[in-house]
Structure formats: structure tokens, C-alpha cells
Amino acid sequence: MDIFQKQIIRTETGSVKWDRTKEVFGTSDVLPMWVADMDFEAPQEVKKALVERVEHGVFGYTFPNAAAKEAIMKWTETRHQWKISSEEAMLFSSGVVTALSVVIQALTEKGDKVLLQSPVYTPFFTMIEENERVVENSPLLLEDSRYYINFEDLESKLSQPEVKMMLICSPHNPSGRAWTEEELRQIGDLCIKHGVTAVSDEIHSDLMLFGKRHYPFASLGKEYAQQCITCIAPSKTFNLAGLQASAIITENKDFRDKIAAVQHKNGQFGLNAMAITAMKAAYETGSAWLDQLLVLLENHTAALTAFIEDRIPEIKVMKPDASYLIWLDCRGTGLSDQELKHQLLYKGKLALEPGPKYGSGGEGFVRINIGTPLATLQEGLLRLEKAFR
């Protein structure tokens, strides 16, 4: 059986996606297509590596060794033409959200402003606010179902002396927009000009679709690499989020030293044995699996788009450049966000991410996860249609 069509029962496994719908949505009688993990088994080589590690039987203190770091460096160079200078450029974290929190603590002070561009990944807001920093928003422009950067507004905001850091979502979540090389250089030039540290969350960068290319921020040139911190992980790419492994990469030694000091202060030391094993195996052996996944995601995107255009034309699909998350513009339904949520949950029996979670500009949108077997996607689309009929 095709591993991407295999139906896997995920309930009663502690799955956030499948076992917490009652807590999150107020009802368990729904098909969950919300949180960003996929319903696919990890690559066979990753499973094999984990089994071998378990059979070893000793689970003492571990650290990301040279082999794991080499796997990451080879992966970024092969897939994205980004050559990381050395192993010393890498630190490790249990996840990208944890990494964002640590970086904010390390490189800004309480009361400083941290810039983001809404609508955007919800933890960008929470990590800024919960670390007692101030959100500075430069909203994205929406034109013909595609987001663009308002560079005039961005420079106005970055020029404020209180703005010390910019969080960049690249590729963008929730829309799947891949920023062009030119756009990223413009951002980088502004950050350098105004002395703002750029933090690039590139967790979806391996999931490029339809011939689009990802440009790692740090690959644009030495001056950009010195101005930024990059966060990556195998979690979205290979469906390994529950194993909690990510890398923080920066060529700036001062940044690294400050980040490492905060990690030490917070009692964060290395990664667990299973995380290291899975991360190394995924980056060493996962290319073929990923290439098959990308074909499936392109087909799923086409199927979803055709269905909605034919059966629910009042909804507009924002075609993604990357990822298995699709941003749906439901403003044409004339429903409020509360009405959208109610219709989806209680009429369609479908759990999607509500747009307002992503800040200003998310009103009237929902995010759907298509990282699931075709049969589940088809069922989800029928429920989506039912919600609006």
C-alpha cells in the first residue's frame, strides 16, 4: 500500500490533532484538519533508525554529535544551496517555538519592540508578548489572493529605535507564500541599515511546491548571514513534531554566545536520544520520501482547488508556494468569523484553524491541512461544502 494513502488511526495516541478537539473546539465529533502535522508515517529509514536505537537499550545523556550536524549541513547545501560555514554555527532546541523564545530573550530586552507581519503564525505573537516584549506589526498587503510586503511601512517600523528584532516567516504560514530572493534582500538591507536582528523561521522550507525555490535568508551573502538567526527543523518535513528537534543556525558568534547563555540559564541542554536519531536519519535518508510527498501535496492542492472552484465558489483558495497548509478566503460567504466557526464545526463537522488566530488580516479566513490521505481530504472537502450549503 502507498504509505501516503494508508489510513492510520491516531486517536488515543496523545495526538494534539486528533485527541484534543474537544478541548480546543468544544466538540469531538469533527474531522480534524487543523494543527500542522500530517497523517502519514515517517520515512521507513527513520523508523528503522529509531528501532535500532531503542534496541541498543542504553539511554544516557546525549548530544547532537558531529554526524548529526554533518547531516544538517549536507541537507541545507543539497536542497537549498546554503553552505553553513561549520558545525560551530549550530545550536539545538526542542522546537522552533522554543528557539524563538530563547532568541527573543537573548537578543532583546523587556520593553523592546519585535516586528512581525500579520497575518502570521500565532506563536510569533505569544513568544513576543509572554517574554514581555512589544509586538510591532507591519501588515502584509493582500492583492489578487497573494500576499506582498509593504516595504514603505516596513522601513517606517524598522527605523524606530525601539524595534530591535524582526521575525520572518519564510515560507509564510498560513498562506504558503515563498518570499523571492529580491524581497528577502530588501528585508535584509533594511535590517542592516537600521540595526535590527532578523530571525528567519524556515521550518516549512523543505516543502516547496510547483517548481518554487526557497532562498535561505543566511545564504544571500555574508552581511545577511551576520545579521540573522535561522530556525529549521525536520518536524514539518518528515512529520516528526512529537520527537522535538530543531536547529538554531547563525554565523554571528556574538549571537550564538548570547543564545547559548540563555539556554544554559533555562536549563536547556542538547536534545533527547530519539530526537537526535530521527533528525540525523531524516536528513541523511529522507530525500526520496520527501520527493514523493511533494508530488502528493501538489495533487492534493489541485484537487482541493478544483473542488472549491466548482462546488463552493464563494470561497477563494490562496495557492501555496510551499507546505501542506492552505489559506482559504471565506469572506465571500458573508459570514462573520463566529458564524464561520459555527457552520464548520456544527454543520460541516470539520475542525479548521480560524483566521483571526493569525492576527490582523486573518479575519474571514480559515486554514486547512491537506497533509492527509486522499480519502480523508475528499471527506474533508465534502464536509466543507456541507458547512456552506
**Side-by-side strand order of the widest sheet:** 2-10-9-8-7-3-4
According to CATH, the fold-level topology of the largest domain is: Aspartate Aminotransferase, domain 2
Number of domains: 2
Rg from alpha-carbon coordinates: 21 Å
SS strand fraction: 5-15%
CATH architecture of the largest domain: 3-Layer(aba) Sandwich
How many runs of DSSP E, i.e. beta strands?
Answer: 15
Structural class assignment = alpha/beta
Number of helices: 15
Low-pLDDT segments, ≥5 res: none
Mean pLDDT: 97
The proportion of residues forming helix, as a percent range, comes to: 40-55%
Question: What CATH first level of the largest domain would be assigned?
Answer: Alpha Beta
| Overall spatial form | globular
Distance between the termini: 35 Å
H and E order: HHEHHEHEHEEEHEHEHEHEHHHEEHEEEH
The major sheet is characterized as:
7 strands, mixed
CATH homologous superfamily descriptor of the largest domain: Type I PLP-dependent aspartate aminotransferase-like (Major domain)
Task: Describe the protein.
There is one protein chain. By secondary structure, this protein is an alpha/beta fold. It folds into two domains: 16-42 and 288-387, Aspartate Aminotransferase, domain 1 (Alpha-Beta Complex), CATH 3.90.1150; 48-284, Aspartate Aminotransferase, domain 2 (3-Layer(aba) Sandwich). The chain has 15 helices and 15 strands. Helix 7 runs parallel beside helix 8 (181-194). The longest helix is centred in the last third of the chain and has 25 residues, at 287-311. It starts with 15 loop residues before the first helix and ends with a helix.
